[in-house]
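Fold it.
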Amino acid sequence: MREAKARRTCASCARSAFWSANEANTSTGGTAAPFAEADFIRRLMAAASRHALVAYAFDPATWDSRTNAVAGWRYDAGGWRRETVEAPFLLYDRLWPDGRESRDRSLAALRTMRQSGGFRLLNGSLPGKTAVLRTLSRCPEIRPLLPPSAAYRGIASLVSWIEARGGSAFLKPSDGSQGKGALAIEAPPGGRWTLSGRNAAGGLVRARGFPRREALREIRAWIGRRPYLMQPLLALRGPDGEPFDLRALMQKDGGGVWRMTGIAVRTGTPESVTANLHGGGVARPPGPYLAGLFGEQTAAGLLERIREASDSIVARLEHLYGRFAELGLDYGIDREGRVWFLEANTKPGRASMAEAGDAAMSDAIHNPLAYARYILLVSSGRVCHEFDLVQRSLHAAGGEGHMAVQPARQNAEN
């Protein structure tokens, strides 16, 4: 027997949009969650002890460099309790700030922690969608999966794109997420242009027709000064006209090896241009849904194609942009059964994994913790034995949320 002391880690940061209210609330009694993804964070906290970790949520703006402490949140006795805790060594960034000001403040606080305090992030980051697709296009086995793409460089570039693509286009922010800011354009020659999408807050903007000149003014105002990506308006809709895509969750396990945690279909409402769950989409098991569209044999082949593509994509992204703990990969399948890779996400949610099976939901919770313990042990120079690594078969309930972790002492028998 020997004592294995795991180093402290933090799995995530509280949603900065709630920071001001949190700072004003000094009560130690149970409260409602002061951040997004609360259920996910609560489940991470509950599972952390199995990995010799202690989990808590915090806002990076609360870090005190003099005492190396943060205002942490823990779930206890049916409510969230705030307490001062020592800052963790490893940060699992689940920040979801509301608005540019909140986003800038949160990123600045996180940057200060990393630069001044030497803290490390569990997961890596990606540049904008345009840069990611450009670099992936240089990989021969991935290139056939990529839809034609180009950076928006003004209205003239959009008009040329639409004319070259049969009178339609799909635009999305290069640095966006959750379907916010997406815009579908249908522009038949000589006819009225139809615009529909999701506004900057994620709200549904129903299809509306405009004369060409007025439509261009609307598009210019919609985009503003934000960098956008132009793509074809692919036929990614189901039998009832609903938009659908597939989310593949790739995560590293307790041995630092990439694993496919699960795949789920996400469907939106017919009037929507996206299938994101944050925009009102619904997750479904992938097998039955795809079998209804393409038949069982073809559906099985499509899922295998996505598994193979996901292995190649995460390997390539990690080679290009550094170490990652997890990535959410989004795919579309058009009416001809062609698979398209749409984008990669460094902060994948967990809600859709409930439709990928109980094992997938459990792994989605446990894998970040197991991998955090793995890299802490490796970075400390400690030799890892099989008893140091928690079995991936441990099951926990699923969910979606925010958290933070910090290792505790654990006895391990070698």
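The chain is about 30% helix and 25% strand.
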